[in-house]
Write a structure and sequence with these properties.
This protein has 98 residues and is an alpha+beta fold. The protein has one domain. The chain is built from 3 helices and 5 strands; from the N terminus they run αββββααβ. A 5-stranded antiparallel beta sheet has the order 4-3-2-1-5. Strand 1 and strand 2 form a beta hairpin. The longest helix has 10 residues.
């Protein structure tokens, strides 16, 4: 699990390299964006994106993409478009810190 508070330290290219390196372990990357909790999970054959939280109304359910590239360039849950919003990510961190 990533333990990185400063989103500025985690640029997209570095993020992409991390996911590729640990693809076999299906890494889960939670982050905070616009005050909401999201997670990207890199499965062996797809990537999922979802909003999560303790209350049911805070959860979105998983949306699947063929690749991280496809997710990055597609507007998804809550209008999030990672290509546009990447610099707005408040932090990447463990579930406990969100």
């Amino acid at each position: 699990m990533i333990k990185m508070e400063n989103a500025n330290d985690w640029r997209y290219e570095k993020f992409k390299e991390y996911l590729e390196k640990y693809k076999d372990s299906e890494p889960e990357i939670p982050f905070l964006l616009n005050g909401k909790k999201y997670i990207i999970i890199n499965y062996k054959d797809k990537v999922s994106f979802q909003r999560f939280g303790d209350a049911v109304q805070d959860q979105s359910g998983e949306v699947f993409f063929k690749t991280l590239y496809e997710l990055y360039y597609t507007e998804t849950i809550d209008g999030v478009l990672l290509e546009r919003d990447w610099e707005k990510i408040e932090r990447f961190c463990d579930y406990e810190l969100l």
